[in-house]
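Today's session is about reading a structure prediction critically. Students often jump straight to the picture, but the first step is always the sequence itself: look for stretches that repeat, for charged clusters, for runs of hydrophobic residues. Only then move on to the predicted structure, which in these notes is written as discrete structure tokens rather than atom positions. Here is the chain we will use throughout the hour.
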Amino acid sequence: ACLLISDSGEILFAKNEHEHLPMASTTKIMTSLLTLENLEACGNKEVEITDEMVRVEGTSMGLMPKDILNLDGLVKGMLLCSGNDAATASAIAIGGNIETFIKMMNEKAEQIGMHNTTFVTPSGLDKDNHHSTAYDMALLGAYAMENKDFTSISSKKSDKVEFINPPKCVSYRNHNKLLRLYDGCIGVKTGFTKAAGRCLVSCAQRNNVKLIAVTLNDPNDWEDHKNMLDYGFSNTVNVSFNDRNLKINIPVQGGTLSEISACGISSFSRSFKRGDENKVKRVIEAKDYCDAPVEKGQIVGRVAYYLNGKEIGKNEILSEDSVEKIEKEKNFFQKIINFIRKNLIFN
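Below is the predicted structure for this chain, in token form.
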């Protein structure tokens, strides 16, 4: 099990969080995420379903050969009703074949920091060496929930998929009962096979705090997730760091003004284990001086925030003034050099 704060990755609770275990259909979090990222980059292309795409056991969204639907329909089929056919179809449609898509999954896992994960199938069906950890799946859940389209689909209790061929609209119900059982739940994905047991990655948000909970091989996952999330929300707080009212002056060298006014223009929020917010240090990091020219809106510093020596966020400081550079009068020899440069050609 693993419970972490989504925006910081701080672990609030963990049990055997680095143990290698199969993760069943929570695998489809990665498959769906890659499908959505491909959709954003290449468009919501149409996919014609083939025999290979539907030749897969287990849960299904009911695809048939010759069906045609868009990529986003396959994502709904994965995240809502956990369609293994949808996962296989997406893998082939995007990678050209399953092997290439599996490589993409493992490359993305390394990018996210899932160093104890190996993907072997796009659906999560049991296969040798297909494994992850509770901690790695929590990292994946937090990363995926930063994608607005992913969050929009995984948070729905049900949704409809429009088929292009044959033209029809099919409604699918989300297998994630926690969406109905827990106030603030907005995702993510269930999973089950005989080898993996019951697996669940959940996400809930309250008072601007977003938590990710994961259990692998947990026969009592609904109750355990409710208890984990309750514990998390009772021990966290969200704090806003606003520097929009910050005003400072910075000297200018070689300009038509001797100094500029600068201001903070932004803010950010961060969630903490309760009490850690009091340990945050605020440091104004502005230039000692600026060399002209200076443009209005130019970044001249920042306000950085640190917790235990690690930077947790920043707000930029921008110039409110424009300053032109004063051109110095050239001496006699500089004028001669400029004349030579302008009038002679060197071979």
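Discussion point for the tutorial: The first strand starts at residue 2 and ends at 5.
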